[in-house]
Design brief:
This protein is of the alpha/beta class. The chain is built from 16 helices and 11 strands. Helix 7 (150-165) crosses helix 13 (320-327).
Length: 482
């Protein structure tokens, strides 16, 4: 760092090196000891806010003081997603290789909007998307781009479907005078579909939630009936969003049957595989994309179950030209001599600015290898199945959904309690478990039943962690009954 700036920034290169080494030591210790922290933060609303000054400092402060406040003020308000006792939501996993690569990304500080702003970033991203495409078994004609989240990817898919259906008129003329476009998804689909439909200007009333089969997957016959009904009413079917691994119960929608309907009626088929897509690296789970020839766009999140820290969402399209035509805008300041010869990824989605996320994918895949990743994913699935067997063996507990991957849905069901009492009891159980700091799980509702969800997919979770948590669940639930 040039010396003339040091007195203003209060950190020269030797100080930066010193603090960086100390910080890495803290990072390593944190990862080693993360399971000793209360998993879920129990601070009260406003507690952290009230401890922070109302005004920024006028004078420079030391890194030591900053870090002291980080430990004393911020850490108590952190929920520890990297704890092996974190079983809530879906995971947002990281790993040492991913963290190391993120450190490099932060140091370089590059903005990867177009090829010329860092050619290596664009070309590494292109290669990593090819690697991922082949690892999960998508057809070779698919091309990919890294988005921040699956929500953004789904929005990009719906916007592209909208433009294809309207012949790109909606981008030019707007939607106010256009026909009503219809989007279809399962009742179990993620809320990001609802948000994307609203942002895309299609109107939430034109999002049709299709009923499910007994395994909570989208019912293709109900989809077909709805499309026919919409056509009869002069509405325009536009896009189906199928889900591999629904958020509530990880249901797997039947792609082949859905795809055949989409092909027949010329609908765009987008597949949201945010969590479950990682399982496609296992040959025994490729059945989930039977019918892949019908897919138009596909997303999964390496930042969920492929040990690559947030954010990193892999978005694939069969026809990149349609995606690009939907989003491309070329102001004078972005014109380059390489236009048309390279991928300028700012034309592949909503944001102009883009991070160098491909580097951490490259590091994770190389340091684990595909076989290492497969071993970890298989282990998580195996743990979920063993947990399900333990639940089945307890007469006062019941499974409420099939265990397809790493999510186990269950509830406490002591004899003599009615459905309303069971809902109240299980909600109380959930909060009691989480407030203990020993574990963290979340809930859903299945057919009106308050359901506990336990997701065994954290990077370092072992069967020992799950068994300890299960024993704690049993003890807590039965003490509540007493």
């Amino acid at each position: 760092m040039p010396s003339q700036y040091s007195k203003h920034l209060k950190m020269n290169s030797s100080e930066f090196r010193k603090f960086a080494h100390e910080l890495v030591d803290w990072m390593a210790s944190y990862l080693e000891n993360v399971e000793s922290y209360p998993v879920k933060s129990n601070v009260k609303p406003g507690e952290i806010f009230s401890k922070l000054p109302d005004t920024p400092p006028e004078k420079p402060e030391s890194f030591e003081n900053f870090f002291k406040d980080f430990i004393n003020i911020i850490m108590p308000g952190i929920t520890h997603w990297q704890s092996p006792n974190f079983f809530a939501f879906f995971p947002a996993n990281t790993s040492p290789p991913s963290i190391l690569a993120e450190m490099i990304i932060s140091t370089l500080g590059v903005q990867c909007m177009i090829w010329e702003t860092s050619p290596a970033a664009t070309e590494l991203e292109q290669k990593m998307m090819n690697w991922l495409r082949d690892m999960i078994g998508l057809p070779e004609n698919f091309e990919g781009v890294i988005q921040d989240t699956a929500s953004t990817s789904t929005l990009a898919a719906i916007l592209t479907a909208r433009e294809k259906t309207t012949g790109f008129r909606s981008n030019d003329e707007g939607l106010f005078n256009s026909e009503k476009l219809r989007i279809y998804c399962s009742e179990q689909a993620h809320s990001s579909v609802d948000k994307a439909v609203k942002i895309a200007g299609l109107g939430i009333k034109n999002l049709v939630k299709i009923g499910t089969r007994d395994d909570y997957s989208l019912d293709p016959e109900k989809l077909r009936i709805q499309i026919k009904e919409d056509l009869k009413n002069k509405l325009i079917p536009c896009c189906v969003v199928a889900t591999l691994g629904t958020t509530g119960v990880t249901a797997i929608d039947p792609l082949k049957e859905i795809g055949e309907i989409c092909s027949e009626y010329r609908l765009w088929l987008h597949v949201d595989a945010a969590l479950a897509g990682t399982a496609l690296i296992l040959p025994e789970y490729r059945w989930m994309i039977d019918g892949k020839e019908y897919i138009d766009s596909f997303v999964f999140n390496p930042h969920k179950w492929m040990f690559t820290n947030f954010d990193c969402s892999a978005f694939f399209v069969k026809d990149a030209s349609t995606l690009i035509r939907t989003f491309e805008i070329l102001p004078e300041y972005l014109k380059t001599r390489t236009r048309g010869k390279v991928n300028d990824y700012r034309d592949w989605g909503v944001p102009l600015g883009r991070r160098f996320r491909a580097l951490k994918l490259w590091c994770v895949i190389r340091m684990y290898g595909v076989e290492g990743l497969r071993e970890m994913v298989r282990n998580h699935i195996s743990i979920a199945r063993r947990l399900a067997e333990m639940i089945k063996n307890e007469p006062d507990f019941e499974l409420l959904a099939p265990v397809t991957l790493n999510t186990v849905c269950f509830r406490y069901k002591p004899s003599g309690a009615n459905e309303n009492e069971l809902n109240v009891l299980n909600e109380k159980l959930n909060h009691t478990l989480n407030d203990s700091g020993k574990m963290y799980l979340t809930h859903t509702k299945i057919n009106g039943k308050y359901t506990l969800r336990m997701v065994t997919a954290q990077t370092n979770v072992t069967m020992k962690h799950v068994m300890n948590s299960w024993e704690f669940i049993l003890e807590t639930a039965r003490s509540m009954k007493a």
